[in-house]
User: Fold this.
Amino acid sequence: MRIVSKRAITEFVEGHPDALEPLLHWYQVAKRAVWQTLVDVRRDFAHADAVGVFTVFNIAGNKYRMITAIKYRWQVIYLRNILTHAEYNRGKWKQ
Assistant:
C-alpha cells in the first residue's frame, strides 16, 4: 500500500512522543500490505473498524485513533487524522 501523508505521523508524535513506536509499527505493516477489503486489514489489525467511508485504527492500546481512507483498488491509504481517544469521541473529525 502507498501511504499518503506520513507527515501526519511525524507531526502527531511531536506532541505525543509515546505514539511514535506504535505508529511506526502500523506504517511498516501497512506499507507492505496488499489489502483488498476490511477483512484483509483486520488480519493485520484486528481492531480496525469501518466508520462510514473511513477505516479507524486503534493505536497504542486504544489511547489514540487514526482515521484513514483506504482506496483498495489503487492500493492507497490516505491519513485523515490522528487523534487522542478523547478527541475522537468528540466527533469533530466526522465533519
Notes: The longest helix spans residues 20-32. The two ends are 26 Å apart (CA to CA). The first strand starts at residue 2 and ends at 4. Residues 54 and 69 are 5 Å apart (CA to CA).
